[in-house]
Design goal:
- The longest helix has 15 residues.
- The chain folds into two domains: 103 residues, Sandwich (Immunoglobulin-like); 124 residues, Immunoglobulin-like.
- It is mainly beta and 290 residues long.
- The N and C termini lie far apart (104 Å).
- The protein has a four-stranded antiparallel β-sheet, with no helix packed on it.
- 11% of the residues lie in helices and 36% in strands.
Length: 290
Amino acid sequence: MREHYFQEHRGAPPLPEVPELPSEYGDTKIVLLVRDPEWVYAYWEINDAVRAEYNLPRHGHSRRMVIRLYNITGRNWPTENAHYFFDIDISPYANNWYIKVPEPDQQWVAELGTFDERGEYLPIVQSNIVRTPRDRMSDETDADWMVVEETWQKIYGMSGALRPLDSSWAGSEELLRHLQKQVYPALRGEGGFAGSGALGSANVAVQPKPGAAKPSAFWLRTETELILYGATEPDASVTVNGEAVVLRSDGSFTLRFALPDGEHQLEVRALSRDGNHQRDIAIHVKKQTK
């Protein structure tokens, strides 16, 4: 007598039903997104309470509705007024819209609004702030990047400079590979080093002494940098050449800059938390390597 065993084959269990996302969440909000240098995208919703307040029933109405787009580039919005704004008429049934902006590389805020029977504009809700990118290549071909002091110390420590020089510790493997590939050849004048990054540099030609044999691999390179430090109120906002600076808890800050040959301007601005007080300091630095 033989026994036969048959393996039972079962199909995959049915997937659970995934509920559909709701078309609205009961909020009143508008969100602005960047598509490219010339276009932004807005989507919004208006809940029933706000619709009743502004007389905007869902089944239709005759009120004019618009998206008002504000150009707020460089402004302390909303304390300072926008440079200008323009209106885009929208359908009363729409909940999203593509908007072509007149200028690239600008900051924008969208506002959903309507007009009453007397033609007066009534704002409903404002969006987040966005900035469209440039539509061209950067004008700077060899930018000098500033490095926060804490970041510099962290990188410096990873390099092994803060550890004893022994064979038991080799530092970050990734950092070592970077140093071997970028920094060491650059210090020897190889690879077309252009001076970008945290340090500015200068090559100095070396002439052999009379009667001495010309050294085959003798070289000299100097590195320079600029350290900017200061302090203000801990809750203030500080920028250097338009770039935001993170303050320490006591309001102090430290930055490191590359310092290549030439003239350099540092515009330091501090703005109080309430926006009522502002202080500006302009620093002019000139470096010349001979």
